[in-house]
């Protein structure tokens, strides 16, 4: 049922993206905002659902396979969208995107993060799958299973590795590039998922763990917002 739910989200988002491109050609800013919003919504909604499947047998092979598969699917269906605030920093830094447009896209991503969480709460309340039972009664899932300093360093390191790899594979054929990036994300999730969740995406982190941000905003913003952004700035500074 979870797979059908995520497939439905992908299908609806794909339809909405096509409609937005057709109907909003004369309104580029609104079109950009909506495309980034619905694309990030897909990533956040699917990842929220995937986070419930970590205990599916055989562990961790099933969860990692799903992570790889849906990362490839996102890469193939969400072309042209960033879905990660850190990814907006590079074109803004290089002058390819105005600060105003960059802020618009980042705002769209966080709006999508909230909408995805609200939507998934509604779905989980229906308890249409066994994995949904009791989810809403849980508070902060506490993704940090290590010290705050180590968690900060892990998210910083993973962000650097991810962003550096993205730069290195820019010249690779898109159909191959999406698999390389998906493989890297899966490897990072395997390496650090049990320590921090290996998210390195501020909007996605906010969608996955809103209760944690509410309970301990300073620590979680440092680990899941500042660390990935700092990693991106390090890459931009060096390269």
From TrEMBL:
A cellular component term, taken from the record's GO annotations: cytoplasm
Transmembrane segments: 181-205, 217-238
Keyword terms: Membrane, Transmembrane, Transmembrane helix
Origin superkingdom: Eukaryota
Keyword Membrane: yes
Lineage, broadest ranks: Eukaryota, Metazoa, Chordata, Craniata, Vertebrata
Entries under Pfam families matching the protein: MIP
Keyword Membrane included in the entry's annotation: yes
Family: Belongs to the MIP/aquaporin (TC 1.A.8) family. AQP11/AQP12 subfamily.
Location in the cell: Membrane
Protein name: AQP11 protein
Molecular functions (GO terms): channel activity
Membrane topology of the entry: Multi-pass membrane protein
